[in-house]
Amino acid sequence: xxxxxxxxxxxxxxxxxxxxxxxxxxxxxxxxxxxxxxxxxxxxxxxxxxxxxxxxxxxxxxxxxxxxxxxxxxxxxxxxxxxxxxxxxxxxxxxxxxxxxxxxxxxxxxxxxxxxxxxxxxxxxxxxxxxxxxxxxxxxxxxxxxxxxxxxxxxxxxxxxxxxxxxxxxxxxxxxxxxxxxxxxxxxxxxxxxxxxxxxxxxxxxxxxxxxxxxxxxxxxxxxxxxxxxxxxxxxxxxxxxxxxxxxxxxxxxxxxxxxxxxxxxxxxxxxxx
Length: 274
Fold this sequence. Notes:
The chain is α+β, with helices and mostly antiparallel strands. The protein contains 7 helices and 10 strands. The chain has an 8-stranded mixed β-sheet with strand order 7-6-5-8-9-3-4-10. Strands 1-2 form a two-stranded antiparallel ribbon.
């Protein structure tokens, strides 16, 4: 049971993260404050899926818990101070993109319009807003064989060749309609987004960009365990007899509507970015 496992770890003041290869990353942490939603420090090696094999004496052998679930923060609770970057730079052309969260059934997707002159890092920040993610984890774009992200001194250790996403424009990597590329967020839960350029359009006079034209279905909560974890979560909250029903409702804050998407709220958040 997820809840029982986490309660044991809470009493010990220790967080243990496991990968599919059963390598372990163990570090001390502060529990999230329910009043402010403060979260433990991110572990880069957890996101990259490589950890120390020596777990230490506090880790029971043969135990493989699900990924830790963190406190969910609604998009309306975000502070604009963390997102005040100028992404709507002037350009004559606008890229219309369809973003689909891979392997979700029924599919979760968004349709957005952004200036072609924005950097891939700007696009990353826009995607965090329109999808409803919280920027807790690492990300990358993959275009062909090239990876774009935030370079880090540890990339050499992980044998990753990364091009700086801040120095490459969307129009450079996806220069024409039907161009496709991938956006990956949270290397643990492995949320893969398939992006396709639907149209390249002239900027409409007086229009503000970026803008979300349509969004279908809610994005899964952070740290719910990927696509399979989200399916289990939905099954638990839908069935009052499920053994984790009450626990999952408490974790999510009392209710969760998988069909809901706040288009007006998303566009308000996008306007605060420009």
